[in-house]
Write a sequence for this structure.
């Protein structure tokens, strides 16, 4: 049976709803770096957990809170920003010519042929 998720559902929300159950069941098989990144993702944008910057208008006094982000490459919002910056940087290194990038993955039986 296929379950359909409706509404605005994010990776962060899926982790918040299911992480404790999953961790309790599989904690012996989860690397610590995974646990750290999941905790970062669940805290991303939470000013109470990661802090915030406060900006105030000198003229009217209006205050604006900007919550800090987790900066995890696995976070669907922070990772996207990092990926976009990487793409922008790496594109400057490409030659300005038409090209195609191909990845060739031979079967393991032929690896000996390509090692030399």
């Amino acid at each position: 049976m296929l379950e359909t998720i409706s509404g605005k559902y994010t990776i962060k929300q899926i982790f918040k709803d299911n992480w404790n159950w999953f961790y309790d069941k599989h904690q012996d098989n989860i690397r610590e770096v995974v646990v750290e990144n999941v905790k970062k993702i669940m805290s991303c944008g939470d000013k109470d957990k990661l802090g915030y910057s406060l900006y105030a208008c000198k003229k009217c006094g209006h205050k604006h809170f900007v919550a800090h982000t987790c900066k995890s490459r696995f976070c669907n919002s922070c990772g996207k920003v990092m990926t976009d910056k990487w793409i922008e940087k790496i594109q400057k290194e490409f030659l300005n010519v038409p090209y195609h990038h191909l990845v060739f993955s031979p079967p393991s039986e032929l690896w000996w042929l390509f090692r030399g």
About this structure: The longest strand covers residues 52-56. Helices lie at 11-26, 32-43, 47-50, 78-91, 111-115. The two ends are 49 Å apart (CA to CA). The CA atoms of residues 22 and 28 lie 11 Å apart.
